[in-house]
Each structure stands twice: as structure tokens, then as C-alpha cells.
Amino acid sequence: MNQSKIAIIGLGYVGLPLARLFATKYSVVGFDINTERIKELKSGKDSTLEVENQVLTSVLVEKNSDAMGLYCSSKLSDLEGCNYFIITVPTPVDKNNRPILTPLIKASETVGSVLKKGDIVIYESTVYPGATEEDCIPVLEKVSGLTFNKDFFAGYSPERINPGDKLHTVEKILKVTSGSTPETGKKVDDLYKSVIIAGTHLAPTIKVAEAAKVIENSQRDINIAFVNELAKIFNLMDINTHDVLEAAGTKWNFLPFKPGLVGGHCIGVDPYYLAQKAQEYGYHPEIILAGRRLNDSMGDYVASEVVKLMIAKDVRVKDANVLVLGITFKENCPDVRNTKAVDVIAALKEFGMNITIYDPWANKEEVMHEYNLESTQEIPTSTFDAIVLTVAHTAFLEMNFDSILNKNNIVYDVKNILPSSKKDGGL
Hints:
By secondary structure, the chain is of the alpha/beta class.
């Protein structure tokens, strides 16, 4: 097994930690079309903060060889000596929530151009059941000229990385594996088992593994939608939702989900992949899409609640200066992909408010590029009519709100991390 040479296609939040892990036992080529990303990684730095700089540096090698370690490259020719190709590119949705497989297809074309007999291509990107064999394999066959399950083989092992989580790192999360043949499945499982200390689960088929991944996040999405709906109901009844959840959580089998904004590249996206495939089979999923609609509505709901509190305190709404704390999709993480904080901001702007965004984790150039919004990593010194905390960054707990709030003010805590005495409302 150690004679294997592994290529990781895509060095983002998923690909880089995986490449780093495999590089502790194998020769690994980390490939990404973003030349700036490659330059950054070769210097021993990871802007996603998923791999600590000293840990990254410890596995980096300067030369592409069969020796153990990680060689980062954007050159196609560096992939030619590999016999395992693991594809870890994003699978987003478009503005109409339809799956975008373009990155997956492009990555398949890249691998297909260097594929040779006996190679195994493993997909980690979240997709709907059937995507690997129906959408990706034909591309590999066409570009390589090889025959699937005769000349080359495939596997699927869905990523389970939780961005920003330093406890549940890739090697500590049990890995689902699968292969296009029983023999391939065993090889794929053995490959991951050699580095994943939490163990593996070999699924009987690729489609089973694909389906298992897509329902993991769909299940979380539906559960969060349920508690978001509870928050709406209990707010009308003047009952603290978190007090209710804490009381209910004393039962051993109660599921501890919390209300909030549901964004990111997994939970806010994956249910649409399953829904799309279901509709192709003539079934219109009701619960899945209902959960999505409710969670997608939370940005408008938060904004309307803020306005109600402002009116109740005689705080002007139009031209109000509002500080939004957090633009990333989750706490203590620089990832801004599919963040629903932007929904809150857009809704507040519709009420005529002036918005200042402060996020010590978010790259302001990336925020501008992705959302055309200005943000800052510096604590604002101006005063504001309202503060809306949208992300539970630890840094926000240390802020002195009194120094930046006007006399009549509103503090709305979406994430419920502030003491009751320091806020006027929240989910």
C-alpha cells in the first residue's frame, strides 16, 4: 500500500487536511488550479487555517518524487506518476438552488488526461446518488480513452470535515468508503483505514455512500428548521426558546439542535442535491424543501425582529447605523462560503439602514469579491444605533458594547452567546 502515490485534486478546506494526513505515510501530490493557493502552501502557510503552519511545513517536500511527503503543484504533468486520484472540489448550487457540477466535471477532465490502466479515482465531493457513475465516470472514459471497471476503477468516500473544528479533525472522524467493484472497495477502504484512526465503514455500493452523505446534512438541516420554527413560535409567546430547549434536553433522547442561520457549503446546499435527484424520479420532496424554505427565510426574520425592537425603543430605523458582528458562515472560522449573514445584511439595508460589518476572521478582499460588501477586521470606534450579532466568534464575547452604542440602542443576539443583561433579543 505504501507504494501508492496519491493525488489530491483541490486543496481547500477539505483537500488540504486530507493531503496533509496522507503525506504522513505516502507520497502525495496536492493539485490546485489556483496558482496563488499553491504559492501560499509552498511557503508553509494556510489561509483557511485548517492546517497549522508548522504541521503543514512538517510534511512539505520541495521535489515531486516517490518519497513520503506533500508536494503542491498546479502543473498537470506532476499528476502523471500517481495511481490514486482523490477529488475534493466544491459542489455548490446556483441562484435557483440547482446543483452546479462544473468543478466536478472539470476535475474529472483533469484526472482523465493523466489516467492510466490500473488507476483508482475516488470522489469526496458531496453529490446526489448516482453522480459519480452517471456524470463523472463518462468524462473520465471520454478523456482517457480507457474503459471503466476494466482499465480503471472508482470509489466514493464522502468528506466529513467540519471547518474550524480543531477537535474533530479528519483522522478522528469515521470514514465511509466504497468502490465500483468489491475488490476496488477493499482497496479504497484499506487506503483510508491506513490513516483514519477513527476507522472506516465500507458501504456496499458507491450510490449508497453518496446517499449516506447527502442525508447526513439534510437531516441536520431539517432538525435546525424545526427549532427555528420553534423560535418563531416562542418569540410570539414571549418564551425564551433556549430555556425551553435546555429543559427539553434533560430527556436522554432529545436532540440538542439550536436555532440560527443555516449557511455554509454543506447543510445549506446538500439538501438541494437530493431534492433535485428526487424530482428527476418524479417525486417532489416535501419535508426536505420545507426545511430549506424555512431556514432560508431566517435572514428576513432576524431583520424584522431587529426593526420591531428598534421601534419599541423609539430608535430610528431609516438611516440607522447598525453594526453587524460576523460575516463568516460559522464561528471562529474564516470561511465565508454561502454565509447567511449576508441575508440579514441585505434585509436590514432594505429598511434603509447603514451597515458596518466587523469580523476579525473574515478576509475583507474575499468578502468584497464574493458579496460586494465592505468589512473590517478592526474593532469599530464609531457609535451605533443597533448591534446584530450573527456569528458566535469568541472575540465578540470580549467586546465592550457600551462604548460603541448610542443612548437608545438595540443588541440582537442571533447565536445566543451573550448574557441576557447585554441584549434586547435574539433567536
